[in-house]
Amino acid sequence: MKIKYIPVFVKDMENGIRFFNDKLGLKVADQIMLDNQTPYLPIQMNSADLYLGLVVDKDNMGFKTRIILNTTDCLKDYHQLKAAGICFNKQPEYLAIGLSAEFNDDYGNQYILLEERNYNQQ
Amino acid sequence: MDYIKTLRNNNKILSETRAHRFQTQSTSDFSIRFALTGNESYRLGRRELSVYPDSFLILNKGTQYISKIDSNTPVESFALTFDQHFLADFNRSYTLSDVSLLDEPQHGAGLGFGMDFNETIYPFAGDMLFNVNHLKNNLDNGLQDELLINEYLNHCLINYYRIYKNEVDNKVDKLNFSSQSTKIEILKRLNLAKDYMYSNYNKNIALDDLAKHACLSVNHLLRTFKQAFSLSPHQFLIQLRLQRAKMLLKTTHYSINEVVCMVGFECPSSFIRLFKGKYKTTPMKYRQAAA
Fold first, then answer.
1. Which chain B residues in 75-134 lie under 8 Å from chain A, judged by CB atoms?
2. What single DSSP character describes residue A28?
3. How far apart are CA B77 and CA B14, in angstroms?
4. The whole model's pTM is what?
5. pLDDT digits (tens, 9 = 90+) for B10-31
6. Is B289 within 8 Å of chain A by CB?
7. Which of A40, A102, B103, B184 has a CA 20 to 30 Å removed from the CA of B50?
């Protein structure tokens, strides 16, 4: 057993696709039905067999997801995402685990950019 | 890879690999100096300071210095120089509240001009090490985006200010004197002793010489060094030798016996015992795991 799909709820699918394609630079694959009523658009994270499933929150339930995106260079990705039009609600800050910055999508899902740093190996 | 990059805001980055070099210079602006491999020695007045990959040196604007590289293997020097306006602006945003910055965006813009940091050797570790490595890798791979380069430089200053707080402000606070100016003067002298150990760690350092170098009596040095660094000078030197031995074990193929001599230990068995006490592994096992 393994985790394969993590749902990300959006108000509007087109808007969601634009956010992932244009701003995050992630590819959205063809629609799949993970149950009988709800279409999901899978977004593959790197080459791993793990997908974010973009899904419309039809009943306005206000579901929110918190996604931690791992990076090898937080400042570089922060800078590139800002240039792509992402508004960060937390600038890069130093944590015990490494360097981290935060942004939201239009629907209020939260994305954390995290560069884990192993300070003990130095 | 060799380059000197001067940004539009006059921040500068220098990367140079040399086995031999001798320069007499004066710093145009506040500068942070690294030796990413090997070591580079600096002469500041009568002080001799050696920078290794586990440490860095800062030089204030206008400091006259001689730098020297004389090595069998090439030494990678890397230096960040900050324009005084950039440094002053950083200092304001670091020290003032958001409200003050919004109310008076230009007020006190001169703050930071003439700022003098303690020109001593600081530990090159933690976030500073990560950020400098990222910056260097990106520049080596052709990064031209000045906004991103300045983002890295800004974070290097954030990292430096934190290191400064740890290495200077916190140590001043630990000294057991009522007068702040006495504390600052004592720490300056203790840093002379620390720099001497950083630069001569592989030699036989006599306590008398160390005290003389720091312009303190032996007793005064022993008492105040322990207060500030929470270690005696002897313990500090042992930790430094172990740290440098660890670096050699990881990055070179010298035998354990050679490493023992290179870092100034006299006896391999006591080195192995001390290494095991600090790192919970033997030098040989550490080398195998790091390979």
1. 125-127, 129-131, 134
2. B
3. 8
4. 0.90
5. 999 999 999 999 999 999 999 9
6. no
7. B184
